[in-house]
Amino acid sequence: CCVVVNIESVDGQPPLFEQNGAAAQESIDFSDVGVFTEQRSVVRLTNSTPLPLQFEWLRYELPPTMLPLTRQRTVAPSPLISSALGEPLAIGDAIRDLDEASMAQICPFSISPAMGHLPAGEAATFEITFSPLEARLFGGAAILRPIGVPEQALPGYDPTPEDKGDDESNTLEIGLRLLGRGDGWDLKLWPG
């Protein structure tokens, strides 16, 4: 049995890029969001696997080299591969080596539920929130990791991959590329 999880929609719209009739990765651009406010996006995933899947989301800060060069979505971005993203900042509900405030400054994206079960043959909805604390560009990634599933059963597994280097996985992970810009106004004080 192989794991088959697809992105069904983002905010009610079908994914822009599909591969072999399925969408495993998608980009969400929150655009400009006021500092100390938040914007939400709803992602719907379908588990076509005949078994329920326990999962957890891994959240990463997106390296600058993986940020898109433009907001125009005419070319599919390079795949998100967790091994190329470094150590996750959060696994499920647990934030690694940071407090909540530091996490919010580095990667102000959250996902709910961050862990749980995907029912067999059904769809589940996830809410992604962008809450910037400063005015700048932010990039993040969220990778859905099935728990207790052998690598051979993961989507895209290839037992005889071509040489892809030591840092790359041969599995196309279920992932979301998250982008947003904290928007604020300059405060100018005049003597008076």
Secondary structure elements and pairings:
Elements: E1 5-10, E2 25-34, E3 39-47, E4 53-61, H1 82-85, E5 90-91, E6 94-95, H2 100-106, E7 109-112, E8 115-118, E9 123-130, E10 137-146, E11 174-183
Parallel strand pairs: 2-11
Antiparallel strand pairs: 1-3, 3-9, 4-5, 4-8, 4-10, 5-6, 7-9, 10-11
- The strand count comes to 11
Low-confidence stretches: 163-170
- Major sheet, described briefly? 7 strands, mixed
Q: Tally the helices: what do you get?
A: 2
Structural class: mainly beta
Beta-strand residue fraction: 35-45%
The level of helicity is under 10%
Question: What's the short version?
Answer:
Helices cover 6% and strands 39% of the residues. The chain contains two helices and eleven strands, in the order E-E-E-E-H-E-E-H-E-E-E-E-E.
Keywords:
single chain; 192 residues; mainly beta; 2 helices; 11 strands; 39% strand; globular
Q: Your description of this structure?
A:
With 192 residues, this protein is mostly beta strands. The chain is 6% helix and 39% strand. The strands form two sheets. Strands 2, 4, 5, 6, 8, 10 and 11 form a seven-stranded mixed sheet that branches. A four-stranded antiparallel sheet has the order 1-3-9-7, with no helix packed on it. Strand 5 and strand 6 (94-95) form a beta hairpin. It starts with a strand and ends in a 9-residue tail after the last strand.
